[in-house]
Design goal:
Layout (H helix, E strand, L loop, with lengths): L7 E5 L11 H14 L2 E5 L22 E5 L12 E4 L5 H11 L5 H10 L3 H24 L4 E2 L7 E5 L7 H12 L4 E2 L11 E5 L4 H18 L2
Parallel strand pairs: 1-2, 2-3
Antiparallel strand pairs: 3-4, 5-6, 6-8, 7-8
Helix pairs in contact: 4-6
Bound molecules: pyridoxal-5'-phosphate (PLP).
Pyridoxal-5'-phosphate binds next to loops.
Length: about 230
């Protein structure tokens, strides 16, 4: 089989939809491979700061030859404000500036002011993180009780990615049933993985803890009535 010709490598850690993280050795190996193959290496670190048992590793710890993407959308809860940042290898800054100035010039001025303010709201961010941590704990305790126990390591972000193949139903149908009968929105894995996503679902716990408790309760009633 011919070797796959890549133009670049884009990774996200913690990832969406899985919430899993890459450790330093894995990041190092990917960075080394990209360098050896002469391809670009892009690290999407948008979920940094939303991690639980161990800290996320930035690709900048293993290489300077990397484009790091980050944003105020997740840790700073500013989804929709369209403000983020890039760390770019020194010799590519000018090219990225040219691209940026033709694509969007700059983020909205009001977003820049709000983002500056957000940088000083660490206490509020840590409170949000504590809510995610409690929600994650509830999800990890509650999902096995409804038969959902094959999950990817939920290291960071606010997602649980689970295998539902034992229920013998396509993830899109499963998600539609859960929405229609339990009023709980989950995402079919097919949105992320056209090959294997028919067997997987993504659950987000970026909500209040009360909502998560209610969602788990409804999911339990649904699963007991349909699948258990
Ligand atoms: C891994 C990842 N990268 C980037 C984005 C986009 O974020 P933004 O709101 O800053 O466009 C998302 C949003 O869900 C994401 O999950």
């Amino acid at each position: 089989m011919a070797a796959l010709q890549l133009d670049g490598l884009l990774i996200a850690s913690p990832g969406n939809p899985t919430g899993t993280m890459l450790g330093k050795p894995a990041l190092q190996a990917l960075a080394d491979h990209a360098k050896k193959s002469g391809i670009g290496f892009i690290s999407d670190e948008i979920y940094h700061g939303i991690e639980y048992e161990k800290k996320a590793v930035t690709a900048l710890e293993v290489t300077n030859s990397v484009y790091v993407i980050n944003s105020f959308s997740k840790y700073f809860s500013m989804t929709g404000w369209r403000v983020g940042w890039l760390v770019v290898p020194e010799d590519h800054v000018r090219s990225v500036e040219r691209l940026a100035q033709n694509m969007f010039i700059c983020p909205p001025h009001i977003s820049q002011i709000a983002a500056l303010e957000a940088l000083g709201c660490g206490e509020e961010m840590e409170k949000n993180l504590a809510v995610y941590a409690e929600n994650r704990r509830l999800m990890l305790a509650g999902l096995p009780q409804v038969g959902i126990n094959k999950i990817a390591p939920p290291d960071g972000a606010f997602y649980i990615y689970a295998d539902i193949s034992e229920f013998g139903v396509d993830s899109r149908i499963f998600a539609a049933q859960v929405l229609a009968y339990a009023g709980v929105a989950i995402t079919p894995g097919l949105d992320f993985d056209p090959l294997r996503g028919g067997h997987t679902i993504r659950l987000s716990y970026a909500q209040s803890t009360d909502e998560i408790v209610e969602g788990l309760c409804r999911l339990k009633a649904f699963m007991q009535a349909r699948y258990l």
